[in-house]
Amino acid sequence: MNLFPFISRKIGQSVLSTNEAGRFILSDDTLPQIAKKADETTNLYQTGMAYDEESDIYFNSYIFDIARRNFIPKTIDYFMIIPTLRCNLNCTYCQVSRANEDALGFDWDDQQYETFIKFFDRHSGDTPKVEIQGGEPLLVYAKLEKLILTLRKLRPSCEIVICTNLQDISDHVIKSIKKLSIFISSSLDGPLKTHDRNRTQNIASAKKFYNNLNSCINELGHEKISLLPTIVDPRIMMEVYLEYKNLGFNEIFMRPVNYQGFARKKHSSSKSIGDEWSDSYLQFLEWLFNENETSDHKISETFFSLHAKRIFKAGYNSHVDFRNPNPVAKDYVVVNFDGKLFPSDEARMLDRIGIIDLSIGDLDYGFDDKKIGQIDDLSKLENYSQCQSCAYKPFCGIDVVDLISKHGTVDVNMHETDNCKMHMRIFDFIFENIKKNNPIFMKNLNLNLTGTYAEPHLTFGNVYD
Amino acid sequence: MYMIELSLNILEIHREEDFVISVTAEKDNLHSNNSGTLADDKTKVSIEGNFAIGLSKPILDLSPYEIWIVFPKSKKITRFFRSDANSNTILLTEQCDQRCIMCSQPPKNYDYTHFELYKEAIALIEGPSVIGISGGEPTLFKTELLEFISDIVKIKPDIKFHVLTNGQHFSDEDINTLKALRKSIIWAVPIYSRDASEHDKIVGKKGAFDELLKGLNVLAKSSSILELRTVVLRENIFGISLLANFIGINLPWVQSWSIMQLEKKGYAVFEWEKKFYDTSSDFKILSKAIEISQARGFAVDLYNFPLCTVPSQFRKYCRKSISDWKSKYIKACMPCADKKLCSGLFEWYDEASGFKNIKALK
Predict the structure, then answer these.
(1) Model pTM?
(2) Cβ contacts (< 8 Å) between B242 and chain A: which residues?
(3) What is the rounded distance in angstroms from the CA atom of residue B291 to the CA atom of residue B284?
(4) Nearest CB partner across the interface for B297, out of A46, A61, A316
(5) Which CATH architecture has domain B83-353?
(6) How far apart are CA A11 and CA A28, in angstroms?
């Protein structure tokens, strides 16, 4: 018997050992100690920690899962477009850098719509998703309607998401959105007061938002709407949860505020969110899990579920902020209001506030392969020395743009970055609770992996019963 | 309610050699030289206006287009292909090197390796189609079988095969052939437990599990499409979550995992109560296994599970799996609104010893 190369980490009194394929064993003994016990041999094969000879079935499944974890589609299946930068709100932390509603020169003209359609047709896979951002895209809805019809002609199963602040939406537009089977994504920062403080700064506008949100829920149904809070004050996570629950949603995404755009100027404390945010977030998770235990209305949390899926589901690498490798412009691209292409939304913001030009081409001339190559080299955890000895590397992800945004360089000690701190805390939280076999945690883990609130029968290396 | 008979008896025939014909009820069947027309009395088939075959009894359920293989000496006809059937299968042999405790078709010493006739028959199929190959154990004739499929793929690339095999007869020498055919075959291979001795006990063959893993590895190395099949039994249901974990980790390339309910036929009839697990009374154990497939991200299908026996959130996995010629619905099903989507029950299903909770939906 041979062990696959592994990395260990202490979890309380136990040892977690992981390998590159993302298989793991959680035990009171170290992996070499377990390997010495004859009656554990079958267990080590079957949990994916060992093999007999190269090219046997255990070896091949190990190789296969490494390939799955590293797989990135070859066609673009996610386009984020910004046909206008104009907006009718002025949020305190606006990440996107906005322009006033009546400003000129911040919209795609007809020629740019045409060029985008050609670009889309050339690069898109069979089942693309087009996320329409802004600014406020509903300001140009008539043009979008035409665009969407054309995209659907080119790729019939094309999924469309419009990200709107829902400040101003007519019944006519809601009806059209329903007819075209468009998804709506919007922001809600919590109860009316909080939402108003962060976004509308005018109670009447906040009320207008609520009315529009309710109209959309009634007309389109919850399944067509995703709502995202941007949590500025971690202590109000519980309030936000209650608000989402009252509105009938089954999912909440406690994403930390991003350190970009105007957020950089106004929320300077967001520079050291790592530990502060993790404390509040994990406290909230424990509270949420207990709520789920007693409430009939179970709510999953997207940031947690993302980490859980990265552990259990080899090949779950569709979340572009959290995967490894995270190559540029292979399956995801952002097209800005001026036709410039970016590897991510964050890169677009960095460009806008003049920190670094991370554009990777434009609609007229296509991709800048040289620049893409440079960024790609940095988009692998393999290139960061501190990650090489980390047991969570097979599950973790890399976000180069975020690194540059926060540190101005990629030459950093990864362990000191906010992202690393957050991810380590969440992975530790998951494995500590698995080790404790805490039933409430286990049910919530299952809820976030499968949608069913019940204790899972997943095996965790040592739990063969 | 009656069964569709796939084998017909001949009363009168004027040919001696085995042959293939297409049969329709239309007068102008022009599909090939060997195209027959069923007469209005449903007992006579004529070719180009001349009497060719007399059947022992009328055939009342002819599909719009059928392909028959006619064996004059034994006075038998095999209805090889029916255009509106939900499956068309070649039973290649009744020999088998396993003795599964629930085998619905216990092994016998008969083979039906009429590869040349099958080729002629498949040549008459129009458009894309899937041909099942089962046994017995079809890979007891592995070389001939792979040659046969290679020949068909050359002349009819839109014919796909679904081969049911115990997966224990592949070796590394087959890799190139399997690779060349990988887009044309789904290999459906049973696995009953992640525990070698439990699996071996169920299939009645010592060392089967280890051979199975070797065979599955050959299929993996040739990038073949793999469907795993597990019949639910009292003997293995308590380990089915462990099996799901095993598949998720050690067989990650699996295209789908079919979990199948037991068919009361063949060996399964003996000590039925010790084998059948009534999932209509307790689905919980299975739901855990399905959740593991969701968490690990591989596909599951439920075969031979009537919709009403499965909790609503898992019904999307139920397939209409029982071939039309051997399915039925019982009295309790009559008012059901979802019959058309449901697998129904096997023709030989026995209410007294079967599911406790069969009820009309909606």
Answers:
(1) 0.92
(2) 457, 459, 464
(3) 11
(4) A316
(5) Alpha-Beta Barrel (3.20)
(6) 9
